[in-house]
Amino acid sequence: MKEFLRKILKWKLRVFAKLILWKYQPGIIGITGSVGKTSAKEAIHTVLRNIRNVRVSRGNFNNEIGLPLTILGHWDKVGSWGFWCKVFFVSALRLIFRMDYPELLVLEYGADRPGDLKYLLDIAKPQIGVITAIGDIPVHVEFYNSPDAVAREKGYLIEALMSAGFAILNYDDEAVLAMKERTRAHIVTYGFDEGAELRITNFQNRMEGDRPEGISFKLEYGGSFVPVRLDDCFGKAQAYAAAIAAAVGLAFGINLVKIAEALTYYQAPSRRMKLIAGIKGSYIIDDSYNASPLAMRAALDTLKSLGKGRKIAVLGDMLEIGKYTLGAHEALGELAGKFLDILVTVGPRAKFIAEAANNAGLAKKNIFSFDEAEEAKRKVQELIKKGDLILVKASRAIGLDKIVEEIRQI
User: Fold this and answer.
1) Which of 28, 45, 205, 360 could lock onto 126 through a cystine, CB 3.0 to 4.6 A?
2) Are 285 and 315 in contact (CB under 8 A)?
């Protein structure tokens, strides 16, 4: 019965969303990838909000429920049946009467399982498609035959673009760059590597004494460049988000200087490489929202590059990577063991990180493993000293946000 009601709900959402799009004809910017989607959405919104009325999908609204719900209204979260009655009542009013509606929608297209993209594209086809990154071991790969199958699924986004559209592709990711053969749209590539049309150069994680400050870099395009400075966020992932937003801005005819000015107001989404003041004069890099092997390695590389104080990592399980689980966790442990001062792991899979870190040279006395976040909170609090830099990262279901709340300065 419950599954039947869910099917009815999905059908109604799909029908109402398509009718709303038919009536109001907004422009659509679609984003997919294995990492970096939320930061890219926020950066795009930052660049476009002063020239257009823009709606961005909230949180994890990227599936057969969340995407049409974003089209229907600026809803924050799903509620009870009373909530759904309100959604469909307001949507009916929008269809009957002419009401305010955004000029642009920035939608996230999730691909948890094969077929997801085609279902979502049947509801809403974008004019601009963005692929962030796939990586060697993409998140959700356990539901696919191979990483290549994940890339094929996500590539449907740019296959759906018309010839007048724009496909914005990560030049540094081989799987993403290969997708350029699958679209008839104008292609804009971005990245750090030489050859990217919109290139990120002179990147650095900034420090002010012992305090992390943010990042700075240059964006180069068409023979021109602009400096960009982002505060209270870290890692190349945030520079990628800014480059994506710049590429979208250029597609809308905004010049590079105006784009750089807009990006100074960018705020990294919560729990995505976000700097937070910690207890005892420490600094937390909160990246606890989710984790994939690609994102986890990038976060550790960022921690390694920051400052000279003690470096602590609180790392949890990476979920939904299937047969790659053991090898992926061990590879992270090998990296972590070479530079960390203290490692705390949470979850059964993360114990492979701990073992590999010990084998790589991190002393056992500096490694602490726990089954759940609740058990780890007190120990992490005890370990922290003034000036420590603490990275917190895991798949969302591990709940490491509880540890962040325990050690943040109130």
Assistant:
1) 28
2) no
